[in-house]
Specification:
binds biotinyl-5-AMP; 23% helix; 7-stranded mixed β-sheet; 5-stranded antiparallel β-sheet; 257 residues; alpha+beta
């Protein structure tokens, strides 16, 4: 099964030609899902505040109004469904590049959908595919980046960081967005052109988690292992007592065995 029309070019139009910016939304992903049919590929839905920011698995994304980036990219890729998971890696590569450019520090991609700085979460990514019968109509890639927030709720304070907290500088969120969109284009085109190994390679250059112990939690079932590699479909390969397990969707905790 492929997404969209097979005759489409494997080169995506430039992202962000259309940016819809809102002072407040429930969630940029929810809004993108409401309007994706009426907007071209690459449209950005951005909000200064979200009243129902979403993480994965029903979790919440909390972001101080006016300080950070919260946006969704409407993608309409021509891709085999089994490669959709690579879009999270493409997004993480783009965000990591923009954070490196802005902070001159080394970010660290954490599979499947986080970017860390100094061991703390600076970005979360929520990719959601919209299916029309048995084909994919669009993929909404939601990205939250902590840019200028310096105080987090008590339970997040030890695990969250922002660009400003890391460097002491304030950042122009529009510039950070432009930098992410620019960095998105090349790995996204590589993915559309079938160069999945290139996408995986770019992601692996920006992670420290391979070779390290991880605890994977799949639907409440925990298993310990060593993260050894990323497969060409974006799955995390984990060496466990029962062999090498390809993990396509899970929560991963670093450093426990
Ligand atoms: C994610 O989920 O990390 C995906 C977050 C995606 C947010 C963007 S914002 C724009 C777009 N519109 C949306 O509604 N969502 C997307 P997950 O891996 O489930 O992580 C969620 C967890 O991260 C929460 O349970 C908290 O522990 C933590 N968290 C919440 N807000 C955070 C923040 N600002 N910084 C760091 N950690 C945070």
């Amino acid at each position: 099964m492929r997404t969209n029309a097979d005759q489409k070019s494997p080169i995506a139009p430039p992202l962000g030609l259309k940016i819809l910016r809102f002072p407040q939304l429930d969630s940029t992903n929810l809004h993108a899902k409401r309007i994706h049919r009426d907007v071209p590929e690459g449209t950005i839905i951005s909000a200064d505040a979200q009243s129902a920011g979403k993480g994965r698995l029903g979790r919440k994304w909390l972001s101080e109004p006016g300080k950070n980036l919260m946006f969704s990219i409407v993608l309409k890729p021509t891709l085999p469904v089994e490669r959709l998971g690579l879009l999270s890696l493409v997004s993480a590569i783009a965000v990591a590049n923009a954070i490196r450019e802005g902070t001159r520090m080394e970010p660290d991609c954490k599979w499947p959908n986080d970017v860390l700085l100094q061991g703390r979460k600076i970005c979360g990514i929520l990719s959601e595919a919209i299916f029309d019968q048995n084909s994919v109509e669009a993929v909404i890639v939601g990205i939250g980046v902590n840019v200028n927030q310096t105080q987090f709720p008590d339970d997040l304070q030890p695990t969250a960081i922002s660009m400003q907290l890391a460097t002491g500088r304030t950042y122009d969120t529009d510039q950070v967005l432009a930098s992410i969109l620019q960095a998105f284009q090349a790995p996204y085109n590589a993915l559309l052109a079938g160069q999945t190994a290139e996408v995986v390679h770019l992601w692996k250059q920006q992670t420290s988690m391979l070779g390290k112990p991880v605890m994977i939690n799949r639907s409440g079932v925990e298993e310990a292992g060593i993260a050894i590699d990323i497969a060409e479909n974006g799955a995390l390969l984990v060496q466990t007592e029962s062999g090498i397990v390809p993990v396509l969707s899970a929560d991963v905790t670093l450093g426990r065995l």
